[in-house]
């Protein structure tokens, strides 16, 4: 018996349970979806080799798969800080985790860090898609920009979005058209392009743009909502009813989609459906802006829920006490209780507007008309589709407003109309603004006839304007530390003057300085965005862009 025991001991095989063994066992459990045993196996492996970044990433991946995103990120932070700083794909993993935690600022931070450290990494496209989602689906403006083409794409789209919000629809159109031409796959720009056409009164182009968007991405919710509004405008009832029925079946998961769908339903008069969507959004626990509560209050009021409407307007008053929007509508509900009939409220965040008679609009004054995006949209619509007498009044109103957007609208009217009287009034409006006249100039109160080919200025006037830019360079680039910028700008401007090309006419000379500073930053790898420089010099981004294009043709170095 003793002999048998001795034999048994000598035949025992040593079972080597090292870290690799536990990792392989964990992977086998993973194939069976036994996550509890997977996590236990990976933790044992890490206990044996705590500095092994690969094992740490295995565990972080499984924790993310079971929804424990914060614990996953804790491990991934430890990987790049203490184990393997060069493992840059970890930043992409963290970006995904933060997105799932709805911490989109940190998701943006990690995605950009990954792209900056590995521009050709295997997750490049996924990281860029995540940034697109954060910036455009969630409507979060970028806090950081990447270098190169992607920066131009994001910054241009951000400028276009601001232009839409502020009622500069023609400016937005130009920027958005540039974006879709340079990158036809950039879907947020297509959606905003259709909106820009719509607000500018060009419904045919708006419809065409929506159709192109849906050809590229059949289920694009923003495009479908825009299509519904356009069908409503054209009274295409049968198609509209079918589309509304389809939209009602959509259960939006992302907050931006829910907001878009709710607002569209409200605009289309589907207040019950809009109320249901807004109610669900506001009960999610996420913070919301005053305008969202305002739209929700409208849906509640229009669907007969006055008490709920009052509660939401009181929330608007709390969030935005200075606008007086909430006070106005709370008074309206009180009057409604006292016997007045229910009023139809548009889904816009402003106080109720008095009916504007465009024939009398010039008597009101430009300042009262220029700051409201919806008034601007009405002006552009009237200029496209109004009666002749309305168009005459709108041209006068635009001359009072007198900014770049108004000038562009009047100039567009001049080129599109065949009515000689309307052409003459458009020329007079341009003259009143102090703007350059198109083609062969008409006499006006502020301008005599202009003769220079392509510039609208005589040769002495053009030369004087070129000298004005040179003087400005000396005056504004004179501070300590700007000597190199001044020398470079003077040399570049001299090259432009000698290029034997007509001067691009710009009303504000400082726009050329903004363009020169932008190009100098590009050459010296100290790039600033055109939007920032436009703000610095008090000109529009579109004007700076026009100057940059003129100078870029010179191959400056």
Overview of the structural elements:
- The chain is an all-alpha fold and 557 residues long.
- The chain has four domains: 19-138, Tetratricopeptide repeat domain (Serine Threonine Protein Phosphatase 5, Tetratricopeptide repeat), CATH 1.25.40.10; 187-335, Tetratricopeptide repeat domain (Serine Threonine Protein Phosphatase 5, Tetratricopeptide repeat), CATH 1.25.40.10; 370-433, Leucine-rich Repeat Variant, CATH 1.25.10; 472-553, Cyclin A, domain 1 (Orthogonal Bundle).
- Helix content is 69%, strand content 0%.
- It has helices at residues 2-10, 19-31, 35-48, 53-65, 69-83, 89-100, 104-117, 124-137, 149-165, 169-182, 187-199, 203-216, 221-233, 237-248, 255-267, 271-282, 290-302, 306-319, 325-337, 361-364, 366-370, 373-385, 388-401, 404-416, 420-433, 459-476, 483-497, 510-523, 530-537, 541-552.
- α4 packs antiparallel against α5, α11 runs parallel beside α13 (221-233) and α22 packs antiparallel against α23.
- InterPro entries: ARM-like, CellSynth/LPSAsmb/PSIAsmb, TPR-like_helical_dom_sf, TPR_rpt.
- Keywords: DNA-binding, Repeat, TPR repeat.
């Amino acid at each position: 018996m003793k002999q048998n025991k001795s034999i048994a001991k000598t035949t025992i095989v040593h079972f080597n349970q090292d870290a690799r063994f536990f990792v392989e066992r964990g992977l086998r459990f993973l194939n069976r979806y036994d996550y509890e045993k997977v996590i236990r196996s990976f933790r044992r492996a890490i206990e044996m080799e705590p500095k092994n970044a690969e094992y740490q990433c295995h565990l972080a991946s499984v924790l993310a798969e079971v929804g424990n995103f914060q614990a996953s990120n804790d491990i991934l932070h430890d990987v790049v800080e203490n184990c393997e700083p060069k493992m840059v794909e970890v930043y992409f993993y963290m970006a995904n985790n933060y997105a799932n935690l709805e911490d989109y600022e940190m998701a943006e931070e990690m995605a950009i860090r990954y792209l900056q450290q590995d521009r050709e990494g295997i997750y490049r496209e996924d990281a860029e898609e995540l940034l697109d989602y954060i910036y455009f689906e969630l409507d979060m403006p970028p806090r950081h920009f990447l270098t190169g083409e992607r920066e131009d794409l994001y910054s241009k789209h951000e400028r276009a979005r601001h232009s839409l919000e502020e009622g500069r629809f023609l400016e937005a159109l130009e920027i958005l058209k540039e974006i879709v031409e340079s990158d036809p796959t950039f879907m947020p720009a297509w959606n905003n392009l259709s909106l820009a056409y719509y607000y500018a009164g060009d419904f045919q182009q708006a419809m065409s743009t929506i159709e192109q968007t849906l050809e590229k991405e059949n289920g694009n919710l923003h495009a479908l909502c825009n299509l519904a509004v356009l069908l409503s405008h054209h009274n295409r009832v049968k198609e509209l009813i079918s589309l509304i029925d389809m939209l009602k079946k959509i259960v939006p998961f992302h907050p931006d989609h829910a907001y878009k769908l709710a607002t569209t339903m409200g605009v289309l008069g589907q207040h019950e459906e809009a109320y249901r969507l807004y109610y669900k959004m506001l009960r999610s626990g996420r913070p919301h802006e005053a305008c969202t509560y305002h739209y929700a209050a409208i849906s509640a009021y229009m669907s007969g829920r006055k008490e709920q409407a009052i509660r939401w307007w009181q929330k608007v008053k709390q969030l935005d006490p200075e606008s007086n929007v909430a006070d106005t509508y709370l008074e309206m509900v009180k009057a409604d209780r006292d016997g007045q009939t229910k009023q139809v409220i548009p889904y816009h965040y402003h106080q109720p507007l008095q009916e504007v008679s465009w024939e009398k609009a010039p008597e009101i004054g430009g300042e009262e008309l220029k700051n409201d995006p919806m008034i601007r949209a009405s002006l552009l619509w009237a200029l496209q589709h109004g009666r002749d007498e309305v168009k005459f009044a709108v041209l006068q109103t635009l001359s009072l407003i007198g900014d770049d957007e108004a000038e562009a609208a009047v100039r567009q009217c001049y080129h599109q109309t065949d009515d000689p009287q309307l052409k003459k009034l458009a020329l007079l409006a341009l003259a009143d603004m102090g703007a350059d006249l198109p083609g062969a100039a008409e006499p006006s109160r502020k301008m005599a006839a202009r003769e220079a080919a392509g510039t609208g200025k005589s040769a002495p006037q053009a030369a004087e304007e070129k000298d004005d830019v040179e003087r400005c360079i000396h005056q504004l680039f004179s501070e300590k530390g700007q000597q190199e910028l001044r020398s470079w700008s003077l040399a570049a401007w001299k090259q432009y003057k000698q290029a034997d090309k007509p001067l691009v006419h710009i009303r504000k000379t400082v726009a050329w300085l903004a363009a020169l500073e932008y190009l100098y930053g590009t050459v010296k790898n100290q790039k600033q965005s055109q939007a920032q420089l436009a703000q610095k010099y008090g000109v529009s981004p579109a004007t700076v862009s026009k100057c940059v294009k003129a100078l870029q043709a010179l191959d400056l170095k």
